[in-house]
Amino acid sequence: MASIDNSPGKLSIVADSDEALAHKLEELNRNLSSDTKAVNFAMAPVHLSRKASTSSLVSSASDESRYTPNLNGSTLSTGSDKKHTRWPSFTNAFPSFLNSGAGSAPLSTMSLWQQWDSVINNWDLYSKKKSQVSELIKRGIPDEFRPLVWQLYTGAHDSPLKNAYHKYLKETSPFERAIRRDVSRTYPKHDFFKEKGAGGQTSLYNVMKAYSLHDREVGYCQGSGFIVGLLLMQMNEVDAFAVLVQLMNEYRLRELYKPCMSELGVRMHQLDSLLAEHLPDLYTHFVAQAFAPSLYASAWFLTLFATAFTLPMATRVMDLFIAEGMDFILRLSLAILTQFAPRLIQMDMESMIFFLQQTESTEWEDHGRILFETATALKLNQRKLKKLRNEYLTVRSQERGEQIELRRLRTENGLLMQRLARMEEDNNYLASQLVDCNLQRAQLAEEVIRLRGSVASMYARESTATLASASEPSTVSALTASASTAPASSSALPDKVPSITGVNGVSATSPDSNASELGDMC
């Protein structure tokens, strides 16, 4: 039988069975609903049910009898028949009246639901036993406890950033346009997100905007919206923001989303090396097809399989990611390749891309349990993973050094090209000037030739004039000589000579008079 202690300040139930616990909780809820001093819980906004919520991969305790108390008239429905879910915010503490006497009974003697009840209500104790809680997560998290477990295990339940969330919403982010563009592409078929501008899309936009302002180095990276959407299906905006910050920082998700994406490169290198070790035939086929891990596995890591799996499977992936970190995503990737290796070897590159990048694959869901069991059982050598990380980072560092040197050489080459361009411009200018000078020279040469011709003509005319001038005095001399020998009176000669000499100059006597005089002389 179960006993109830309703003493003031203490409400506890010690149940012999889940059925008895459910009946006693019903009775306790009736008492609480009529008690004006009952604990008042802040409830989160309504979220619609997830697709295929009947999957055992989400309802991890489907074989267990579960019951959720009616808190202030708001139902926390359980199992596959839930339509609308309200989750209690961790602004207030989770109610202690669900305590099943966990302080005295070991977890191994309880049902899964009772174990989680005990863990949540005694988190101060179990927060120091993370490995024990991690093993419990591997067994499954009841839907009723999932939002609380995610917050507690990540350390987001008491995050001071919750107080800064609304301040971020009042600021302006440089990524607002990109976020708005991608909001409608995030879970477009889900009832909570498919209506444009409705509550789901608004909440998704708000959380991603707040984070882009909180972490300005990362800002917004495409793909992170699917993780935020998965969180919003479980809790309100403030709690989802707090969990997101913890996932980014403590689980190194932000390293995947940094502009350099070095962490993503590390994981791709590790996956490629593990593939060569565990599945050499498939690795050889991938190499022959030039099928690098970045072609099919990048989205797996960036969205934690939220785009590849159905929502029940994606939710379970988040459970195990919170428990084990990014190594689980690496093991799950290897488990998928192992499970489908015989089929992949028969495919060409295009078929492999289509198969491994399919979204919400029901075929993968059919193999879900095997995939999770394989991934959980797979053990990875941490020393080898660390070695592969250092190996990749060393190569990346060398490449970065080479890139820096290449960038320097490219910069120097650019400067030289600029100088060469300026020199070519100067050369073109000088060539143009040379052409102009040659043209002017040719014109001057023509002018010189013309002037020389003119000078020659002038010389010729001057020579002719000189010769003409030189020939006239000899004629006068001859005439004078003949005149001196002519029989004439000596007295008449002086009068005639001036008239003759006037012929050389500008004589005032007329030609007729000169002629007559010459005739007289003759």
Write a brief caption for the model.
This protein has 522 residues and is mainly alpha-helical. Helices cover 61% and strands 2% of the residues.
Order of helices and strands: EEHEEHHHHHHHHHHHHHHHHHHHHHH
Class per helix and strand makeup = mainly alpha
- SS strand fraction: under 5%
- The span between the termini is 188 Å
Low-pLDDT segments = 1-17, 32-104, 488-522
Region (Disordered): 59-82, 502-522
Protein name: Rab-GAP TBC domain-containing protein
GO molecular function: GTPase activator activity; small GTPase binding
Domain Rab-GAP TBC: 140-325
Explain how this protein is built.
This protein has 522 residues and is mainly alpha-helical. The protein has three domains: 1-142, no CATH class; 155-259, putative rabgap domain of human tbc1 domain family member 14 like domains (Helicase, Ruva Protein, domain 3), CATH 1.10.8.270; 260-380, Ypt/Rab-GAP domain of gyp1p, domain 3 (Cyclin A, domain 1). The protein is 61% helix and 2% strand. It is built from 23 helices and four strands. It has helices spanning 18-34, 112-121, 123-126, 130-139, 146-154, 165-170, 176-183, 199-214, 224-232, 237-250, 253-257, 262-278, 280-288, 298-303, 311-324, 326-339, 341-344, 349-356, 362-366, 368-377, 382-485, 493-501, 511-521; strands at residues 3-5, 12-14, 47-48, 84-85. A two-stranded antiparallel sheet has the order 1-2. Strands 3-4 form a two-stranded antiparallel ribbon. A hairpin with a 6-residue loop joins strand 1 and strand 2. Helix 15 crosses helix 16 and helix 21 packs antiparallel against helix 22. The longest helix has 104 residues, at 382-485. The protein is elongated. The termini are far apart.
